Each structure stands twice: as structure tokens, then as C-alpha cells.
Amino acid sequence: MSQIKSAVGLRLRPSAHILLIKNPHSNWSKWDHLLAVAFSQLDAEMCDKCGNPIWLCRTTDGRVRFEVETYVCYADKELQKRRKKRESRKRELKDGEYEFVRAVPDVEGVVLPSRDDYYDLLALKSNSEE
Ligand SMILES: [Zn+2]
């Protein structure tokens, strides 16, 4: 779905974007239009409050219940820590100044984990829970 979203956002033919076909701007086919319409429909059906499909999160059907899960964004945690520290010192940001977080290695010269490393770790955790 994210590929169709990016294609539509870039005004590219969805099929050409997905299949890496040359000239992605040319000649939208019937299927490109259908993919764009389907994406638009799915996007409209995702709840802007919770991100779940509206047919699940807005139903009163008794078969549906919800579980709350949490995750930790360590980058945001660091930013919150910094913000609290700044506020305790009563220091405000200057006009136009803002704080942001970027990942850096804990030890200089060490390579940061890759996307593959992240998903490998999730798979390992998932397998060990089964
Ligand atoms: Zn919702």
C-alpha cells in the first residue's frame, strides 16, 4: 500500500512504480486508475485517530475487542529527557531554534544497526515467544 501511496503522491503510474517499468509518468492504464481508486478508498477507511481500519475501530460488533500495546521510541525518550532538563533550568529555546534527535553510535566507529538487523531482531523475538 505504501508503494501505491508514494506513486499517487508523485503522480506516477502505480503499476510502473511497483514493477519498476520505464516512463512511470506515461499512459495510465485502467489498472493504474483502479489501483489509485482502491488506494484512495483504503486510505479513507483508515481511522485518523488510531490508524486501524474504521470497520474495526468504529464497530459496535461484540466480536471485536481491542488490546493496547506500547512501544518505546528511544529517540523521543532522549528528547523528552533533554526538554525536562532544559525546563528545570528555566532555559527556553531561542526564536527559530529547535531540538531534534539523530541516531549516533554508542561507541565511536561502531556501525549503527541496519533495517535488516532490526527486522531480524523482531523475527528472533517473535520466534522465541512461540
Ligand atoms: Zn479509530
Notable characteristics:
single chain, extended, 130 residues, mainly alpha, binds zinc ion
Uncertain segments: none
Q: Helicity range of the residues? A: 40-55%
Task: Indicate the structural class.
Answer: mainly alpha
**End-to-end Cα distance:** 28 Å
Give Rg in angstroms: 22 Å
Main sheet: strands, sense, barrel: none
Strand percentage lies at: under 5%
Q: Element order, helices and strands?
A: HHHHHH
Mean pLDDT across all amino acids: 90
Shape: extended
Task: Give a structural overview.
- The structure is a single chain.
- The mean pLDDT is 90.
- The longest helix is centred in the N-terminal third of the chain and has 15 residues, at 30-44.
- The chain has a domain at 2-46.
- The protein is 48% helix and 0% strand.
- The chain is extended and about 60 Å long.
- It has 130 residues and is an all-alpha fold.
- It binds zinc ion (ZN).
- Residues 47, 49-50, 52, 57 line the site of zinc ion.
What's the short version?
With 130 residues, this protein is an all-alpha fold. It has helices spanning 2-9, 14-19, 30-44, 54-57, 74-88, 115-129.
Layout of secondary structure:
Elements: H1 2-9, H2 14-19, H3 30-44, H4 54-57, H5 74-88, H6 115-129
The structure holds zinc ion.
